[in-house]
Amino acid sequence: MTVMKTSMRNFFAHKGRMALSAVAVLLSVAFVCGTLVFTDTMNTTFDKLFATTASDVTVSPKEAKSDDTPQNGKPASLPASTVQQVAKADGVKSAEGGVSSMNVTVVNDENKNMGSSNGAPTIAGNWTKGDLRSMEITSGHAPRGPTETMVDADTADKHHLKIGDELRTISVVGDFKAKIVGIATFKVTNPGAAIVYFDTATAQRELLGAEGRFTQVFATAAAGVSDTRLKQNVTEALGGSYKIQTAKENADENREDVGEFMNVIKYAMLGFAGIAFLVGIFLIINTFSMLVAQRTREIGLLRAIGSSRKQVNRSVLVEALLLGFVGSILGVGAGVGIAIGLMKLMSMAGMNLSTDDLTIKASTPVAGLVLGVVVTVLAAYLPARRAGKVSPMAALRDAGTPADGKAGWVRGLIGLVLTGAGGYALYAAATADTAKDGSLLLAGGVVLSLIGFVVIGPLLAGGVVRVISALILRGFGPVGRMAERNALRNPRRTGATGAALMIGLALVACLSVVGSSMVASATSELDKSVGADFIVQGNQRIVPQAQKAMEQTPGLAHVTSYKEVEAVLTSPDGKKDDSRVTAADPTYAQDLRRATTEGTLSAAYGKDSMSVGSDYAKDHGVHVGDTITVAFKGGKTAKLKVAAITDDDSALDQGARYLSIATMKQYVPADQIPPNTIMFAKAKDGQEKQAYAALKKSLDDYPQYQVRDQTDYKQELKDQIGQLLNMVYGLLALAIIVAVLGVVNTLALSVVERTREIGLMRAIGLSRRQLRRMIRMESVVIALFGALLGLGLGMGWGATAQKLLALEGLNVLDIPWPTIIGVFVGSAFVGLFAALVPAFRAGRMNVLNAIATD
Fold first, then answer.
1. For 557-612, how does the pLDDT look when each residue is reduced to its tens digit (9 = 90+)?
2. Are 39 and 179 part of one and the same domain?
3. Does a structural domain hold residue 390?
4. Count of domains forming the chain
5. What are phi and psi of 86, to 5 degrees?
6. Whole-angstrom distance, CA of residue 466 vs CA of residue 485
7. Which of 371, 402, 433 is the last residue before a domain boundary?
8. DSSP string across 465-515
9. Does 548 lie in the same domain as 691?
């Protein structure tokens, strides 16, 4: 009870000093809880949608997958007779055929894409009675003929569509126009998909290219018949050549597809929260170390009147427990706010998430509380242990906490060993023969070198701070020298404070190097290998009508088709490889100048010829002249002669197996030939600008495709990587904010610790302005110390990662010096900002009161 009373008294006596540590715990817990609530809410939204839309039993083609489009671009389908067979099965109340396709684009009369901007699909299909489970027609009526369509209310609101507007639907079968005659509203939250409905005959003709076929059959169970029993009955009626699922199985499959994506988001965000927790540990360690040092005499008195080491230790840990509990409780509440904010942000981006589905599982606040409290108590353990070692006599003499010189040397030795081991692991990763082996070594090297730098930080502080001070502070005269001595006064504290900032900036530097190297490598590869003037591609395969428009564009010397065909390859050693081959026009050898280790790429486009990559050739002992058996999906089996082996030391089309479209057509039926994945074009000599403009005009009617010249392509690649890095930097900002709080807290507590010293300096003539400048300079030096370590460490990680990327063809190491220098300079401003409040408080101290402080 005495320990608890002492802890409570100390906690509330120093509540101002604990505040920033509590904020660090709050932010970290809030990010964890916000991530969990956000992802759980998204899962709830999709679960409700899938559960509502699934029929009792769904019959699909055997090869149909919820997240896949067949290679020919047309959805896999069933004959209409399947509907009658299902309807006759025992226990079936009703059966209805459905048509659905996600390989469509819908545009308005201005050729603007009406699809989602967040990656959600555009779905076109027929309106069925089963759709009434999840939707209701709130305006107009269902489509009744080939010129009528109905859209969902969310899409109508987003794109300002109304009844009477005309939409054009583009599918692999062709284009057709229809006027909106109805608007249907979801009864549950629609996460963002755009949906258009047609009558059954129109959907079959325009989406499947054939009447009398369906993509699914929906069966409704009669009263008293379970879904499982109904599935058994339908299976007996149809046989085993169909994919038959209950409502639960159908929903589970859809949920699994979404779950993979959700898990990536969830664990990535939790990873950044973990980084923030790691940074927060340094803040908490510094806070309690300084509080223990300031209460040395008090601890000595407690020991003198009979308190044991365990009791003193326990008293500090109880304070940490209170800090962790308060910060975690507030963090859980803030986490819900973050989740709602993320939902609003996603809604602005086009993904609708309703707060009605806000999901807060019992495990979420428990996880936040446990994590926050455990991390705080663990971080406070070392300061608490040092407090317990304070001897009564030393404390009463105000000797402070014991300085263990031996422990310092041990710490330094451990730090050197860990840093050396990390450096060796990074070297081994950089010289690894395979990316798989190198990535494991890279991960080990990053962890070991990071821990090593953290442990060795106090030793590095002495030398690095002196160098920084010599370059920056010496020009400020005595004030600069005092700031330098203050930063060097407690190397352990300076090392821990700098390490907190080091972690975030190391990751920033590493990712900047990797991103910049990827852009530079790809740009170099494009300059070296790509001969085409223009590249056309989009989120969907290129429909035949867009291909035709491209081929009719004036000013082009040639247009190259590029198709990916599913096939099973059997090498001469008898091993099978279920993969794809690339069918392209012979002009592709001009559009992409692929280096070869044997033969020439142009020879691969001869009759019954093909090429393979050098890695495949090495693994299977393949040489030019050998024969590979290629079993085309949906087609025949061919024996193709290897005419070339392409060098896989390239980032473009690495591992591709080429053959001509003419060869592919001999073995793949016309209705199974896939649309182009991408297309290339070469302008006639001297007509590049005119051909570029003409090609863009030719594809105006197909906004789902982008026409890019090489400059456009490079810029888009740079923009995409830049957007990804900006998102990562935004997530890392949490860790940097916590690190800044650490600098603020360290300085604030340091000012309190040096109250008498500050009073004496003021008494002998130091002005308030000079005092504030001294504290700001001290903060700048600590921030630059952390930045220098972090940026150096991060560039080392990034350079090593680039060596691994070189194994995948990204051979250029590019250090983004403007970013690195900008971050370093920015760190100085971070130091100035962090010192504002501590410097202001120090300047307001009463000189006499400060001198009189014990």
1. 999 999 999 999 999 999 998 889 999 999 999 999 889 999 999 999 999 999 99
2. no
3. yes
4. 4
5. -65, -40
6. 9
7. 402
8. HHHHHHHHTGGGHHHHHHHHHHHHH-HHHHHHHHHHHHHHHHHHHHHHHHH
9. yes
Question: Quick one: tokens of 483?
Answer: 């700031």
C-beta separation of 275 from 733 below 8 A: no
The answer to whether residue 650 sits within a structural domain is: yes
Are 375 and 465 in a shared domain? no
Q: Which of 425, 377, 339, 389 is nearest to 42 (CA)?
A: 339
- What length does the chain have? 854
φ and ψ at residue 592, rounded to 5 degrees: -130, 110
In tens, the pLDDT along 301-340 reads: 666 666 667 777 777 778 788 888 888 999 999 999 999 9
| DSSP letters spanning 8-62 | HHHHHHTHHHHHHHHHHHHHHHHHHHHHHHHHHHHHHHHHHHHHHH--SEEEEET
Q: Where are the alpha helices (DSSP H) in 295-362?
A: 296-304, 309-348
Return the SS3 of 136.
strand
Taking the C-alpha atoms of residue 454 and residue 460, their distance in angstroms, rounded to an integer, is: 10
Average pLDDT value for residue range 442-448? 92
CA distances from 784 to 189, 750, 758 (A): 49, 18, 24
Name residue 403's amino acid. A
Amino acid at 451: I
The pair phi, psi for residue 117, each rounded to 5°, is -95, 0
Angle at 19 between CA 15 and CA 23, to 5 degrees: 155
555 and 616 in one domain?
yes
Q: 744 to each of 492, 750, 771, 783, how far by Cα in Å?
A: 16, 10, 16, 11
Q: Are residues 673 and 618 in the same domain?
A: yes
Do 15 and 149 belong to one domain? no
**Quick one: 75 and 216 in the same domain?**
yes
201, 143 in Cβ contact below 8 A? no
Q: Which of 144, 3, 17, 6 is nearest to 748 (CA)?
A: 17
Q: Would residue 434 count as lying in a domain?
A: no
Confidence of residue 294 (pLDDT cuts 50, 70, 90): low
**Residue burial 452-468, b: 16+ Cβ < 10 Å; e: rest:** bbbbbbbbbbeebbeeb
**pLDDT tens digits, 150-176:** 999 989 998 999 999 999 999 998 899
Cα(675)–Cα(564) distance, rounded to whole angstroms?
9
Domain containing 717 equals 460-530+710-854
DSSP structure string for 157-199: HHHT--TT-EEEEE-SS-EEEEEEEEEEEESS---S-EEEEE-
pLDDT of 401:
46
For the cut 50, the answer to whether the pLDDT of residue 399 exceeds it is: no
Q: Residue 581 corresponds to which tokens in the numbers above?
A: 């081959």
- Here the tokens at position 496 are 């821990």
Residue 415 has pLDDT above 60, yes or no: yes
- Residue 742 forms part of a structural domain: yes
- My answer on whether 176 and 87 are in the same domain is yes
Kind of pairing between the strands at 148-152 and 175-186:
parallel
pLDDT in tens, 672-706: 899 999 999 999 998 999 999 999 999 999 999 99
Could you tell me which residues come within 8 angstroms of residue 24 by beta carbon, excluding any fewer than 6 positions away? 276, 279, 280, 283, 284, 327, 738, 741, 742
Buried-exposed string 603-631: b where 16+ CB fall within 10 A, e elsewhere:
bbbbebbbbbbbebbeebebebebbbbbb
Q: Which amino acid is at 143?
A: P
Last residue of a domain, one of 402, 433, 468: 402
How many beta carbons lie within 10 A of that of residue 436, not counting itself? 10
Count other C-beta atoms under 10 Å from residue 492's C-beta. 17
Angle at 402 between CA 379 and CA 17, to 5 degrees: 45
If pLDDT is split at 50, 70 and 90, which confidence band does 16 have? low
CA distances from 751 to 748, 758, 841 (A): 5, 8, 8
